[in-house]
Amino acid sequence: MQKILNQKHSKETFLYTIMNTLERASYYGIRALFVIYMIGETLKMEHAKAFEVYGIFFISIIFSKIIGAVVGDLFIGNKKAIIIGGLIQALGAFSLCNPSIYGLYSGLFLISIGSGFFTTNLHSNFGKLYLEKLQLSDAGFTILYLSSNLGSFFGILLLGYLGEKYGYSIGFLATGFLTLLSIAPLLFIKEKSIHDKIIDNKISFKKRLQTIFITFSVVGLFWLFYELASVRNSDLIFQFSEISALNISRYLWNSLSAIFILPISLIAILLWTFFYINQISKLTLGLLFAILSLGILLFIPEIPLKEHVYIYIGSLLLFSISEILIAPVVQSTLTKYGNPKYLAILMSIISLPVRLFTFLLIPFKEELDNSIQLSFNVGLTGIIILTLGFISYTYFNSRKPKQTI
Q1: 193, part of any domain
Q2: CA 313 – CA 336 distance, rounded (Å)
Q3: Beta-ladder partners of 3
Q4: What is the count of structural domains for the chain?
Q5: 114, 227 in Cβ contact below 8 A?
Q6: What is the mean pLDDT of the chain?
Q7: What are phi and psi of 248, to 5 degrees?
Q8: Which residues contact 103 (CB under 8 A, 6 or more apart)?
Q9: What is the pLDDT of residue 197?
Q10: What is the DSSP letter of 96?
Q11: Is 403 a member of any domain?
């Protein structure tokens, strides 16, 4: 651990954070509303069709991020891409106010394109703030990650309430204005020009490529295995919510992890603002906390009792620590080792590895879907093997002269 001297977060950090919070509140507010809207009295869509539309929308976001990043990095600049994305996303939210299938599909299409343009280019510009103070980048991206969680939490809470209380059109209208509001802080931010001289030429291209590949692979496999193991979490939430003695709604159960994220993020931000801990250490600790989080679930029987709720809450707390140790590291690693001229493009492919690794499980999909315990065991075992492999890799690599990440 090394003390960080004479470095601090800039006002632009907090302006971008405000933008991200507002846009994420709008985006997740829309996600909370439109499935219920589709199957409601207005459109009366069948449940299967509604979830199919939701799945297509979710996948389209992945590709729209890549398109938005390419346009921002190579053609119009990241700042203009953010503005255009915000305007398109707001237009999509307003289109949803038209109570028809046409309004639904055109609205979701525009929101997908707009969100893709907005998020990756914002993250790219945010990362560029730390090119000359890389030791602060983990703390910076933790601030941004916290803002995403706060935005999604309050967006679902507030916009969901508006939609249910005053009608879906009011909810969608509010999300549109919230997206427009998210662009406003950009007026106070001057975009810095990026030159090749910013890249640390002491690190070879091969080393940069290797570090980015390893980080993508480790984090991609981690989230893949965790998704497999998390079916146990979903099952426990359902069973705990059915225990009347606990008197806790299923909504609150689903929000517990978000509640833990706030204090843990604040502690991490303060710690990493004043002390530098290298990214390998953070990733390793994050993987170990994830193993502990899933491991203690083994002490909860298949049919849990109310006294087992404390074990489950402990598991959520440990995973929240793991998440904060792992999630921001990918973006800060790309900021350090990537070419800043193409940073948005790199940011846009963060979620691709886990989707690509998912194809490896297709032959076993039926067995995993039919057994919660099997899926959990595969997920936990996968994270254990991944952690041991990563520790072994970093140990043997540390014996060679090299740059640490």
Answers
A1: no
A2: 35
A3: 275
A4: 2
A5: no
A6: 91
A7: -125, 130
A8: 95, 96, 97
A9: 46
A10: T
A11: no
How far apart are the C-alpha atoms of 352 and 343, rounded to whole Å? 15
- CA 158 to chain CA centroid, nearest Å: 20
Q: How many CB atoms lie within 10 A of CB 41?
A: 7
**Phi, then psi, of 173 in degrees rounded to 5:** -60, -40
The span from the CA of 320 to the CA of 300, in Å, is: 19
| pLDDT the model gives residue 340 | 93
Residue entry with tokens 């843990």: 264
Which pLDDT score is estimated for 196? 46
Count the residues in the chain.
Answer: 405
On whether the CB atoms of residues 146 and 259 are closer than 8 A, the answer is no
- Tokens describing residue 355: 């989707």
The helix (H) or strand (E) run that includes residue 311 is helix 309-337
Pick the last residue of a domain from 168, 187, 206.
187
Largest CA distance in the chain: 66
| Phi-psi map region of 6: left, alpha, beta (phi>0 left; psi -120 to 50 alpha) | left
Query: Which of 54, 33, 37, 250 is CA-nearest to residue 161?
Result: 33
Residue 12: both structure tokens together: 């632009």
Residue given tokens 């004043």 in the structure block: 274
Residue 201 scores a pLDDT above 80: no
Q: Do 337 and 280 touch, CB atoms closer than 8 A?
A: no
Which residues lie closer than 8 Å to 279 by C-beta, 6 or more apart?
138, 215, 329, 332, 333, 404, 405
Asked whether residue 405 is assigned to any structural domain, the reply reads: no
Under a CB-based contact definition with an 8 Å cutoff, are residues 112 and 90 in contact?
Answer: no
> From start to end of 251-315, where are the E strands?
275-276
Q: Which two tokens stand for residue 399?
A: 């014996």
Q: Considering the domain boundaries, does residue 192 fall inside one?
A: no
Report the amino acid identity of residue 173: L
Q: Which domain holds residue 132?
A: 10-187
**CA-to-CA separations, 21 to 146, 242, 313, in angstroms, rounded:** 9, 33, 26
Split at pLDDT 50, 70, 90, the class of 332 is: very high
Say if residue 247 is exposed, middle or buried (CB neighbours under 10 Å; 0-12, 13-18, 19+): exposed
Type of residue found at 211: T
Residues 140-144, mean pLDDT to the nearest whole number: 97
